[in-house]
Amino acid sequence: MPQTVAGIDWASDKHDVLIEDLDGVRVWAGEIAHDEDGITELCSMLLAAGVIRVAIERPDGLLIERLLDAGLVVLALHPNQVKAARPRFSVSGGKSDRFDAFVLAELARTDHHRFRALVPDSDQTKALRALTRGRGELMSTRRTLCNQLRAELERCWPGVIRAFPDLHRRIVLAFLDRWPTARDAGGLTERQLATFLTKHHYSGKRTATQILDQLRTAPTGRAGQAETAARRQLIRGLVATLRQIIEQIKLLESQIADGVHAHPDGEIFTSPFASPNSTLTAAVLLAEIGDQRARYPTSEALAGDAGQAAVAVESGKKKVATFRRACDHRLRDAFCTLANTTRHHNPWAQRLYTDARARGHDHQRAIRTVGRAWSRVLWRCWQDGIPYDPDRHNTLQKQLLILRG
Question: Do the Cβ atoms of 168 and 142 come closer than 8 Å?
Answer without folding.
Answer: yes
